[in-house]
Amino acid sequence: MAALEYRNIRKTFGAIDVIPDVSLHIPDGSFTVFVGPSGCGKSTLLRLTAGLEETTDGHLFIDGRDVTDDRPTERGIAMVFQSYALYPHMDVEGNIGFALKMAKVPNSEIKRKVAAAADVLQLTPLLKRKPAELSGGQRQRVAIGRAIVREPKVFLFDEPLSNLDAALRTQMRVELAQLHQRLGATMIYVTHDQVEAMTLADQIVVLNKGRIEQVGAPIDLYNRPQTLFVAGFIGSPKMNLFTGEVAEAAGAHTLGVRPEHITVSRESGALQGQVQFTERLGSDTFLHVLVECLGTVIARTIGDASLSAGERVWLSYEPALTHLFDGSGNRISV
Ligand SMILES: Nc1ncnc2c1ncn2[C@@H]1O[C@H](COP(=O)(O)OP(=O)(O)OP(=O)(O)O)[C@@H](O)[C@H]1O
Ligand SMILES: [Mg+2]
């Protein structure tokens, strides 16, 4: 059991209230992802959880036990950072087992634990290599290995894949998901990557200026964002957000439509516009269409669109697939 409970957690740095008041439940064995703009407090919240930073106010419980004043080593938590520093003069085996050696764990036990972690992370053939002889993804796996051998109840990951190239990220993402399944440990993961957040998370926590905007399953946040902030933050390309007449006609301050819910036609539709440019991804095409009363609208079409810049097109959307927000940025239930 390793459920986490944040109760009115607050963190100030001098006069700056970085985290004004966070209360959050993280279920045992879940994969929770923190997302939010740069500077919103994601790393600070992880560091508070690990005990690397003191909480100003509030309490943190792990397994129902108040750990707010516990030292990092007493919390049963392991953290993997974006810039993981491996010991360059030690081989993979030495790096993974280092914390155990420091803790004076018997050598035979270290060997056994390192071998088990290396097996899970597919590092067994590389145990005798030095970090300089490894690829970025392999080094990242060694950093995760160091965390695994400590058998923590909770893993904290702060943007662990952001230094890797796209192909490696995809591979490591799948490996992390499998690792979570195999270990069954509670994991908290910070990322800026929408795909990582959507695919890895059981629950996503959206943070904005140190406050929780919304907590929920990825698809619920995507389909029913409770605030304008979440609507604009989750999803790539972003949801189209319109104010003015079209929103007012629907009784809202802001009306949102996801790019995939905008239909594009050469013949007819509700709004006329001109294609400004196209982004062709192969699988999809994002059309940027300038509509006089709305500004730029992004529409997603499947496959390769035969439209090109300068063409006049018609756009439409179904009212049932729109998101309505009031003047305070809160969802209007429909
Ligand atoms: N030791 C510190 N002293 C003063 N301010 C700090 C300190 N550490 C962090 N901050 C401030 O706290 C805020 C939150 O920082 P934090 O690193 O948690 O953001 P983040 O969400 O992880 O951002 P990023 O996505 O860029 O990593 C920022 O405004 C930052 O400048
Ligand atoms: Mg950070």
SSE topology sketch:
Elements lengths: L3 E10 L2 E11 L4 E5 L6 H9 L6 E6 L2 E2 L10 E4 L11 H11 L4 H14 L15 H13 L5 E5 L7 H18 L2 E5 L3 H7 L2 E6 L2 E6 L1 H6 L4 H6 L6 E3 L2 H5 L4 E4 L5 E3 L5 E10 L3 E8 L3 E8 L9 E5 L5 E4 L9
Parallel strand pairs: 3-8, 3-9, 6-7, 7-8
Antiparallel strand pairs: 1-2, 1-4, 4-5, 9-10, 11-12, 12-18, 13-17, 14-15, 14-17, 15-16
Bound molecules: adenosine-5'-triphosphate and magnesium ion.
Magnesium ion binds next to helix 1.
Summarize this structure briefly.
The chain has 334 residues and is an alpha+beta fold.
Please explain how this structure is put together.
With 334 residues, the chain is an alpha+beta fold. The chain folds into two domains: 4-227, P-loop containing nucleotide triphosphate hydrolases (Rossmann fold), CATH 3.40.50.300; 237-325, OB fold (Dihydrolipoamide Acetyltransferase, E2P) (Beta Barrel), CATH 2.40.50.140. Helices cover 27% and strands 31% of the residues. It has nine helices and 18 strands. The strands form four sheets. Strands 6-7-8-3-9-10 form a six-stranded mixed beta sheet, sandwiched between helices. Strands 13-17-14-15-16 form a five-stranded antiparallel beta sheet, with no helix packed on it. The chain has a four-stranded antiparallel beta sheet with strand order 2-1-4-5, covered by helices on one side. The chain is globular. The model has no long low-confidence stretch (mean pLDDT 94).
